[in-house]
Amino acid sequence: MTGLLTIVFCAVPLLVIILIIVFHKNFVKRQSKYLKNVPGPKPNPIFGNMLDFAVPSHQFFNVIESYINQHGMIYQIYDGPLSSMLIILDEKLIEYVLSSTKIIEKTDQYKYFHNWLGTGLLTSKGSKWKKRRRMLTPAFHFSILDNFLDVFNRVGDIFMKQLEKHEDEDSFDIYPLVSLYTLDVICEAAMGTSVNAQTDGNSKYVQSVKKMCAIITDRNFSPLDTRLYPLTLNFYRERSAVKVLHSHTDAVIDRKIEQLKNCDEKNEELNDSGTKKRMAFLDLLLKSTIDGIPLTREDIREEVDTFMFEGHDTTSSAISFAMYSLANNQRVQQKALEEQIEIFGGNNKEARSTTADLQKMKYLELVIKETLRLYPSVPFFSRKVNEDFEWENSTFPKGQNLLIIPYMAQRNAKYYPKPLEFNPERFLEIDGTNPYRYVPFSAGPRNCIGQKFAMLEMKSTLSKVLRSFELLPSNPHQELKLAPEIILVSKSGIHISLKKRK
Ligand code: HEM
């Protein structure tokens, strides 16, 4: 009996491995039939190329860079024995993919978000995505953005007070403070409720977002079969993180429902001129219908979770890297400061930016663009091919996964001379170049819905920071350890030093 059991225990896994190898060989043959001219590293029959990614997350970009050096701007890696990903850095192919109205579905990797974000706007597909996108677009229309300036100014004042607590320190990590600030902004601006994250120091939500991003990154790059996930520690970590995240968003929704009950709806929905007012994001979710049916509590929560995450973590990454870049590039900081003085006059710390002021901040806009070139908050994103298409003698087959990596494309010397130099003026000389070489907000029908909101928030915040503080490099200098944990982060923190302006 024991002998039989031993044979079964050995034979079954062996058979599975043999089958995987056979299927993998067929899959590779099929891929090379379609993708004739597409190079790539040789895959392992069980793990594909994933063993190369068994390194700390801040070394992922090194692996990708070494592939680019060997295989060029379009190459294929195997993210499992039976699955492959085409890495695209070529601007023309990026243009083809992102401008397509057909290639708008995300890859299966986005399913790792489902326990947390459900199938909200970021992860949904097909008609659900189309209807939700149509419904939510007015909440970020430029005509409503003016309403958010007061939030940026008010919450920004608290942020300045939090920064003041660190003035004259030789070195401190700005990222945790900026994360709490941007969480307060998105909650007040989009959800219409205040969570006072900065003053309460309540970072449980922010900590859980970090935990989830690290877990999803692990799962994305893991060579282990996803069916083994419930046996891992991450499975239990994810459960407790999701509990914290959902209880936070539930509280925000409940508070808003309570507020709506207590206010005069007629006044809420009309402008001073009596015309219909555009509703803020959460009001829109609570009051709108799709095909005549109101959204369920679950529908609402998945969108609140999605926008709360996308709306705060992306901007906190961008603002932190912009502050770091200003601290480490005094010429750029001086020029950006002079622009602020020109707009607001000499003693300008207390001034509150208006829309007209923000529009005048042309140099600051270049600084933000250059920050997002070197440090795109979303360092990569993917698409799935929905029907075969031809590209340079290859056929990209239906179902093929595509990965676009703005982080690598935007640091490529072919597109940007001296790519690692922080030089905002480079954007003054880009006339005639393909706009798809620069896609920090993605592009086309599935681009970032919050792009204009994000630009205003970043401008308003950096304007305040520049007028209040001199930003200096940390002492001792702290090297960034950049890692794509869904959002671009620095594993060594983002350290600078601050001196209050007189
Ligand atoms: C610096 C700030 C930001 C950057 C760099 C950024 C970047 C991006 C990128 C690259 C995508 C495409 C992701 C993909 O295809 O998987 C995206 C999508 C999205 N972003 Fe942003 N984002 C920023 C700020 C925001 C803000 C402030 C909000 C909300 C207020 C937001 C909400 C979203 C949503 C909901 C999507 C999914 C859109 C869809 O699939 O239709 N983002 N963002």
From TrEMBL:
Places the protein is found: Endoplasmic reticulum membrane; Microsome membrane
Single GO term (MF): oxidoreductase activity, acting on paired donors, with incorporation or reduction of molecular oxygen
GO cellular component, one term: endoplasmic reticulum membrane
Keyword Hydrolase: no
PROSITE patterns tied to this protein: CYTOCHROME_P450
Name of the protein described by the UniProt record: Cytochrome P450
Topology of this chain in the membrane: Peripheral membrane protein
Chief site of localization: endoplasmic reticulum
Cofactors named for this entry: heme
Transmembrane segments: 6-23
Pfam families: p450
Residues the entry annotates as binding heme: C448
Alphabetical UniProt keywords: Endoplasmic reticulum, Heme, Iron, Membrane, Metal-binding, Microsome, Monooxygenase, Oxidoreductase, Transmembrane, Transmembrane helix
Signal peptide: none
Domain of life: Eukaryota
Claim: rRNA-binding is one of the keywords in the record: no
Recorded family membership: Belongs to the cytochrome P450 family.
